Amino acid sequence: MHTLADFLTFRTFVTPSVLLGVYYLGAVGMPLFFLYLLRREAFRRIRERLRSAWQWRLGILVMFLAGELAWRIFIEFFVAYFQIRAALTGV
Question: pTM score, two decimals?
Answer without folding.
Answer: 0.66
